[in-house]
Amino acid sequence: MDYFELYGLPISFNPDLKLVKQKFYELSKKYHPDFFINESEEKQQEVLELSTLNNKAFQVLNDPQKRIHYILSLKGLLEEGENYKLPQTFLMEMMDVNEALMDLQFDPDAARLSQVKQEIDGIEASLNQELESLAAAFDAQDPSAQDATLREIKDVYYRSKYLYRIRESLAKIK
């Protein structure tokens, strides 16, 4: 059973978070292990598994990044250890940013650092805007038409992951 099915929700990049929270609390009460203390060992184990599933579902559905990863995995678009090919234009843009970061490590310059941070912020804002647009399109589409949108979301997901690593490098520069 997937997390959306557990909560009785359609697969969506923008689920109703109030409803997610409501379903979480509802199932937390229903599957609280303390209520099954006098049940058989098997029943207690089953309830514990359902309680754990509920907790994981809430954590994933409540976090936009985890939710994207989960949906892409659920739809079979993410593979463990996948060597995804990012678009060449994006890689060229990131090469320029990486070169600037290397230069800043050897030759600190507060003004240049600020400029690089602004550039990264702009790229991130653009990716977030693209992702929001694609997620809204996916949620509005008939399930038979969602595959192409999912592939585009996957591309933005991988570009965002790459940018996250750039941000980690940026954080190390003083």
From TrEMBL:
Chaperone keyword on record: yes
Biological role stated in the UniProt entry: Co-chaperone involved in the maturation of iron-sulfur cluster-containing proteins. Seems to help targeting proteins to be folded toward HscA.
Lineage: Bacteria, Pseudomonadati, Bacteroidota, Sphingobacteriia, Sphingobacteriales
Domain of life per record: Bacteria
Organism: Pedobacter quisquiliarum
Pfam families in the record: DnaJ, HSCB_C
Family designation: Belongs to the HscB family.
Assigned keywords, A-Z: Chaperone
NCBIfam families noted in UniProt: hscB (TIGR00714)
Stated name of the protein: Co-chaperone protein HscB
Protein's UniProt keywords contain Magnesium: no
